[in-house]
Design goal:
561 residues; alpha+beta; six-stranded antiparallel beta sheet; 10 helices; disordered N terminus
């Protein structure tokens, strides 16, 4: 055998064995006992209420699914009534990412159309059989990836035919953060300053205020190895059913190391032992530095400079230059970054603690996955991405920003970002559910009245489907405008090449989202004086067309650009 090849094989074996030894040593080390600390009576009470809340929510979902499974017992997958039954469940839970019935012969029907295609290809779903439900009537999966919504958790119950034979399963994909429905607009529990997270007994994160960490594993992700005693403290929580302890770790903004006092209980549900953790620690809202004047041309110029530097000097030299506090990109007036096309942060001088973390599931104030949108944009050659930054506090204040990204090659991209305005803006997290609940009746209208009557009603400015706060459009997958009451002269036109003021492909992006099962997107338009940014919710009707509803969020003068 070639000596160089033999040496390479030896190195591989040594590396693999070393990795195995590390994992074995973690698994075999004695479980750390929690260092019991005193917590306030209020924390004890809130921990119990947190437990009861999650217990009620999960049971309610499971009960609703069993009722639907019973209704499906007299249906076949090609029965139109089956889809209506699924639609009723989806309408009941606007925080669902999709619902599917996978029959025993592997026929799949889902609501919305396509919404569950990617989820059902995740590891483990093809192995679900009647035996999977032995000793339990519901399964709760680990977090899995949805194309549009990011990480979701799935509730699964069996479906039996009228004769009692197994006929597949019902799968309900839920957004993890919305399980914590007490305070949907903050990372805290109720009116307290207690932070929450949920993980299972294997160390997998189910829910966390930093949504990008959902799906991480506390044992295998290097981020949780430091600083100080953080890992032993987290391990004590994961490996014990209940208790109190304290440990050091970064605060919510990944800026300062703080001591976190924690109390937790365990809820057993769907084959999972869920650690429900309540945390208390001093958290200082980060100071926000906003520009006195806004020149958005800077982000384009800076990104182009980063791109040219990367093309000339290569990846390693570019990342080093970006991280150099006295380097060529240290005083750009913008926030610069480099990210891999699978979502790993390669450089971000303004938040250097998150370098190396995968942020593809990171979500802004309205739940839009900013990094995922950037990846989609660079796959089309680059462009602009709007975002509303993390809530600055529980007072519903955020920053409207704009980023410009360019792909260096197929594996990574560079970009820069800046606030669009010189002041913060308010946001309303209820806009998401408001849009979903506005679009849902349109689907029901289609089911009852058919496509043509629905399009006619949507095109009638005084019709029964018109909403004064929300604008609706219907578009075919080949880009033909089917309905828009505000643009009667364009009905039937090809709008596939429609672009926004900053060059984003509006229709193409909406079609892509619809074909992935639906979801949310920012759409930018303009009039004579202002740019307007709207939150848009897209839902597929069938394999030919989709409906979208939009509500305006912000506007800003064109002169600022």
């Amino acid at each position: 055998m070639n000596r160089q090849l033999l040496l390479s094989l030896v190195i591989i074996v040594v590396v693999v064995c070393a990795g195995a030894i590390v994992l074995i040593s973690i698994a075999s080390a004695p479980s750390p006992e929690p260092t019991h600390v005193s917590v306030s009576d209020d924390m004890v009470q809130m921990s119990e209420e947190f437990y009861q809340s999650i217990d009620v929510i999960t049971d309610e979902i499971a009960d609703a699914m069993h009722d639907v499974a019973e209704e499906l017992s007299t249906c076949t997958p090609d029965d139109p009534e089956a889809k209506e039954i699924l639609r009723d469940l989806f309408d009941k839970y606007p925080n669902s990412a999709g619902i599917a019935w996978v029959s025993a012969d592997n026929t799949i029907i889902s609501v919305p159309v396509y919404s569950m295609d990617h989820v059902l290809t995740s590891r483990g779903f093809t192995d679900i059989t009647e035996k999977s439900f032995t000793g339990r009537d519901v399964i709760l999966t680990d977090p899995v990836m949805s194309n549009v919504y990011g990480m979701v958790v799935c509730f699964i119950v069996p479906v039996y035919a009228a004769d009692g034979s197994y006929n597949g399963y019902l799968c309900f994909a839920h957004l993890p953060i919305t399980l914590l429905n007490e305070t949907p607009d903050t990372p805290y529990y109720k009116d307290t300053k207690y932070e929450l997270w949920i993980a299972n007994s294997d160390g997998t994160v189910f829910c966390h205020p930093d949504l990008s960490t959902i799906g991480y594993n506390y044992y295998t992700n290097a981020f949780y190895r430091g600083p100080g005693k953080s890992f032993s403290g987290i391990r004590a929580i994961i490996e014990n059913n209940e208790g109190t302890t304290s440990y050091e770790f970064y605060d919510l903004s990944n800026t300062d190391v703080v001591e976190k006092v924690s109390i937790w209980k365990t809820l057993s549900f769907g084959g999972q032992d869920l650690r429900l953790v309540l945390l208390n620690y001093p958290y200082k809202v980060p100071e926000v530095s906003l520009p006195d004047t806004v020149n958005l041309a800077e982000i384009t110029d800076v990104t182009q400079a980063l791109y040219l530097y990367a093309k000339k000097y290569g990846k390693g030299a570019t990342l080093a230059a970006m991280n150099d506090p006295s380097g060529p990109f240290s005083n750009t007036g913008t926030k610069i970054f480099a990210i891999s096309t699978d979502g790993v942060v390669l450089s971000m001088p303004s938040k250097d603690k998150i370098v190396g973390l995968n942020r593809i599931n990171y979500q802004d104030a309205y739940g839009i996955r900013q990094v995922a949108t950037m990846i989609n944009r660079v796959s089309q050659g680059g462009g602009y991405v709007h975002y509303y930054s993390d809530p600055l506090s529980s007072k519903n204040q955020t920053i409207l920003g704009l980023a410009y990204v360019l792909p260096v090659d197929e594996t990574w991209f560079v970009g820069s970002e800046k606030s669009v305005l010189n002041h913060t803006v308010s946001f309303n997290p209820d806009m998401r559910s408001k849009l979903v609940r506005a679009v849902q009746p349109l689907q029901e209208y289609v089911n009852v009245h058919g496509k043509e009557q629905t399009l006619a009603a949507l095109n009638d400015p005084s019709g029964e489907l018109i909403n004064p706060d929300i604008s609706f459009v219907a578009i075919s997958y080949d880009g033909k405008l089917l309905a828009d009451a505000s643009k009667p002269d364009m009905i039937g036109d090809d709008v596939f090449s429609l672009v926004g003021p900053h060059g984003t492909s509006i229709t193409r992006d909406l079609v892509l989202i619809a074909k992935q099962g639906g979801g949310f997107e920012y759409v930018e338009t303009r009039d004579a004086d202002n740019f307007m940014l709207s939150l848009t919710y897209v839902e597929s009707v069938d394999d030919e067309w989709f409906i979208a509803g939009s509500i305006e969020l912000s506007s800003h003068p064109i002169v600022l650009s």
